[in-house]
Amino acid sequence: MPTVLLSGPYRFYFYAGDQAEPPHVHVERDDNEAKYWLDPVRLARSNGFGAKELRTIEKLVRQNEALFLERWNEFFHD
Fold first, then answer.
1. How far is CA 9 from the centre of its chain?
2. How many domains does the chain have?
3. Per-chain mean pLDDT for the chain
4. Considering only CA atoms, which of 10, 76, 67, 21 is closest in space to residue 44?
5. What is the rounded distance in angstroms from the CA atom of residue 60 to the CA atom of residue 18?
């Protein structure tokens, strides 16, 4: 599970087995986890995060969308 970005309490990462899926990023904090599709950015699923925190995380995903897509392509297509 390569870490793509650390931002405050959040770790953004990929699962190596997710190559067959459209580009997305996972995020975790403590025991909470969520998955965001990247193109377009939207929440795929969440476990443990509240609505306010999900909005904060989505803002971070949007701000880093280009980085996540670049890293996705490097990781899965190189």
1. 14
2. 1
3. 95
4. 21
5. 21
